[in-house]
Amino acid sequence: MVKTAVILxxxxxxxxxxxxxPRERKVFRELSGRAVWLRAAEAFLNHPDVAQxxxxxxxxxxDWFKEKYRANLAFLELxxxxxxxxxxxxxxxxxxxxxxxxxxxxxxxxxxPVISRSLIDRxxxxxxxxxxxxxxxxxxxxxxxxEQGRITDTVPRAGLHAAQxxxxxxxxxxxxxxxxxxxxxxxxxxxxxEQSGIPVVAVEGSSLNIKITTxxxxxxxxxxxxxxxxxxxxxxxxxxxxxGQRDLFS
Length: 250
Fold this sequence. Notes:
Layout: E1 4-9, E2 30-31, E3 34-35, H1 36-45, E4 50-57, H2 62-68, H3 70-75, E5 79-82, H4 87-95, E6 104-109, H5 117-130, E7 132-138, E8 143-147, E9 150-155, E10 161-163, E11 167-170, H6 171-179, H7 189-194, E12 201-204, H8 215-225, H9 243-246
Parallel strand pairs: 1-4, 1-6, 4-5, 7-12
Antiparallel strand pairs: 2-3, 6-11, 7-10, 7-11, 8-9
């Protein structure tokens, strides 16, 4: 067992989702009766290696979040962290709160609620062995570069993979990588580590592990929840858990 902290990134403004208020943001929308962020969090809260879970929330949403999810927060062992201007700023804020006895740190998008125990295990095990690991899936579609509505190039897809989360790293390695970070804001945490010259291992991701970006994605996630394995939970379920959540622990 390796003590692991999970940072759940939930501070985005959901601009592509068309949200104008906290309650409309994608991570706070209901997915089969439960908030998207909560379904993502519970996959880790019930994992035996996870000793700390930090949820990063936009500062302007914190008061609303605490009131909206007061019943959940009273029961679940979560720590709330104010987010920053960019994703990397939010992760920095959370890293400052990670306990010193933690060995691995995993960062997961709160907008990825359809995640299986087997995927989490693959990432955790690879990060423990190699120092840095992320799940990826091969890109199957033909990729076009478009400028001003016109196709300017067809990008060869050989070797191209789409990155997913959770992305996991040795704590000290990630702290050092963020301390050296300069230049434009990275789009994921693996990029921060890559820029430090540290190799990142790719493990098999899952086509079910989609990131909710649009209302259509939310409808897709509803269907995908039913496809997760049903081998049953390995840890205790809290009183709020429903049958749909049991998929998340397999």
